[in-house]
Amino acid sequence: MSPAHEGAELGIGEELVVAEGIHKTFNRGMRGREVQVLRGVDLRVTKGEVLVVIGPSGSGKSTLLRCLNFIAPPDQGSVTFLGRRLTGDVPRRRPAERIRYERELRYFRTHIGIVFQHFNLFPHMTAADNVALGPMRALGLSGHDARERSVEELTRVGMADKVNAYPSQLSGGQKQRVAIARALAMRPQLMLFDEATSALDPELIGGILDEMKRLAETGMTMIVVTHEMGFAREVGDRVVFMDEGRIVEEGAARELIENPKNERTQAFLSAILS
Amino acid sequence: MILAYTFRWELVPESAGVLAHGLKVTLQLSALSFVLSLALGLVVALCRLAPSRPVRAAAYVYTQIFRALSLYVYVLFLYFGIAAVFGIDLGTFAAGVVALTLLNSAYMAEIYRAAIGSVEHGQREAALALGLGHTRTFSSVIGPQAVRVAVPGLVNQLVDIIKDSSIVAVIGVLDLMGTTIQLVNTKRAPFELYTVTALTYIALILLVSAAAALLERRLARHLASGGTGPGPLERMRSFRFRGEAPA
Amino acid sequence: MTSLLAYDFAWGPVLDRWDLFLLGAWLDVWVTGLSFLLACAIGFGVAVLRISGIRWLQGAAFAYVQILRGVPLLVFLYWVYFGIAIVIGVNFSPIQAGIVALTLTGSAYTAEIFRGGLQAIDRGQAEASRSLGLSRVGTYRHVLLPQTFRIVVPPLGNTFIGLLKGATLLSIIAVHDMVRVANDLNINFFTPFEAFTAVALILVALVAVFSAAVSFVERMLRLP
To answer: Is chain C in touch with chain A: ≥3 Cβ pairs within 8 A?
Structure first.
């Protein structure tokens, strides 16, 4: 049985996720060519908020998202989600603590949904199976219930007629819809979008942005990494500008985009909006 | 050119029965070793990817050593050396199976490892992000995709196993080569008999290679069309949680 | 400890004859080297035939490769040494038979490797080079072959190592390589474990050295 709606009693305005002092370094393998991707990031997101993260490539935006659900655990710092605090230190020595840590990880991952830039759909499964896998194996739903939920979510993103299609038979936009359905099928408290439209053909971008807008209007808490400034201004509540592993500026969405205070933010925005 | 040799091809049909029996032993030896090394190779490959460093190192050493040895040297070591040390009489067939299995498992392990590595990194991320544990991630997401890539290489190992199996004749196994050597000693028609045996091996290898190529072509065609959808392997299995037949 | 096992370890005889082992190993190495070079020469020729465009030559080359890749080395060795030798009345020495067997089976592999290398080079390269005014020979020499070389070296290195392992079979027909030395030791001193361990270690060491050399060359050839 999944610990499904614990902490769902958070009211709007309360802090859903808090990241403190996040540092992350990647070792590219060859001769200590280490890259420090995140150099001390603090972030607070309140329930129901849509936070947009912008910045040049290499600024650490994608890495930050991956730190939040620990698929790339931070080297330093902690993430507090729904009152539960977790760091990147895996207790390797003591098995009891290790089990507790794994359980907490699972809690994070099953309550945080993520949509990737390159979809990452499982190519050897149908759309329905892709969406049903999580609920069935990570949440413990029965095959029948998982299947039902899968069809429900796929219908919600407009993919009812493609339920039995394989990813190779779908367009980019369709794949991303399935990916969104797959994340939402877990009934997450927080949704992360990692440049969800960057790999799409231009004419398909709008459709996905609409889905994301619809989701925001249902009150879902979202952290969206994107280059789509229109979306950021219209749908975002707050915007954060990252550069070289740090948050350079943050503020209300419309305010920051129209009147950036920091030089680097100004430079970035003028380049991207021209 | 007049050859000072009288061919005695009539010996061939005479010996056919004995040779056929030897062929059967070759097939048994090869098939058994193939299956065992498939399994052992998978274990070693997983050790190569294990989180624990000593396990990884041990598996690495294992593959390096067994890929460096020739079957002949290893069979001698096993059948004469190890057997003498532990005072056990291994039996020639068993020694052959053990040697073939251990050696080939190292090659299989490398094939598995490369196949697992070829699966897109994002697949693992997506599976973990859903909250699937490591075991489930491997069995439901990474494994099935790796198997597709691994199959051609694995089946080609069977060809090498069949060829190598001829070596165990020198320790007395009565496989195809072993029976041929015996026959030559009694009938003294080496050219005719070795020619027939060589041709038999060649035919057998060609058969297996053709089957492997066919399998590879069907898998490649499947992968080329996007790599998804029910492939030849899918149609042989059924996913447990699928409610309907594939589209 | 030795009382548990019915075996008395005796490394003396092996260690005393370390020079014989090394000489035997050297024999394996030079036989392999010679066979490898001959196999490359023959294989290259076969590969050229394979892509020649002339139907029957291509077919013949294809058959050559299939036959020599399908026959196990031991079987072929016996066929050469015991079979063909008697028929054509040539008295091969064991080493000669060994070299013939290794060369011919090796050439089947090198033929495929060279074929892959030659075919992998973009046809556009040849077109560009001819357009610049290079002759056909010049095209081969300055444009195609250097690139083929880069592709071809790693698998050829592996073929060499494969031949080295095959050379260990030569002791069966009384070639005095390191395996023969170990066998003799075993017969005379009843030290199978020590003798065969020594051979195995030398073989592993040789393969490790040659593999490292191949990796080194590979890295040197890699384009930035």
So the answer is: no
